[in-house]
Amino acid sequence: MVRTVIVGEWWSTPPRLFPKGNDMGKNDIQGIGDARLDLAGRYSGNINTLGADYFKFHIDRIPKFVQFVQSVTVPALNIGQINQPTRYIPIVHPGDSVEFGTIDVVFMLDEDMESYLEIYKWMSTTKAFDRPDLVAENSEYFSDATLFVLNSAKRPNLQIKFEKVFPSTLGGWEFSSTNTTKEPIPVTVTFYFTKFTVEKI
Fold this sequence. Notes:
Elements: E1 28-30, E2 36-38, E3 55-59, E4 69-73, E5 77-78, E6 81-84, E7 91-94, E8 99-100, E9 103-108, H1 114-126, E10 143-150, E11 156-170, E12 186-192, E13 195-200
Antiparallel strand pairs: 1-2, 3-10, 4-9, 5-8, 6-7, 9-12, 10-11, 11-12, 11-13
């Protein structure tokens, strides 16, 4: 079903390309957000690229687990779309709901399996495996998590804060007597959450 919306003016007054007063240097051109271009069209801000290993992940509820985290997938964000019918072609507008992907984390098993057991025990409190009396209250299902994004000096630069996080899928792994390389065993766990915010530190 196509949803119809009534669209008014996009803005009441045209946007200003240049700020008032002395907010901008004489060699700068105002860009979007904090971005600035000089008169030659070159970006004048930080041009360092973000490294894939520039991160630290923390979940309040499971401090041992986070010591063995190897990778974290930042979830996708989807706001969908609404099509406004017209006589010729439909006009597409941002949707009226927000959908988040999942946080997928790969961690290594430690010898005592404490990294695994922290997730296992957390999941067992949300859905009783054998004893219904051990199921936690609804408010105890969740925990907050923070993904710290580091700069090129490996210092915290931004933080992505996830609210009401809980594990939904804990992956398995394989033992093999033919594997003599002694490589760590990776396991994947998937978390759901309510929302996330990105903040500059």
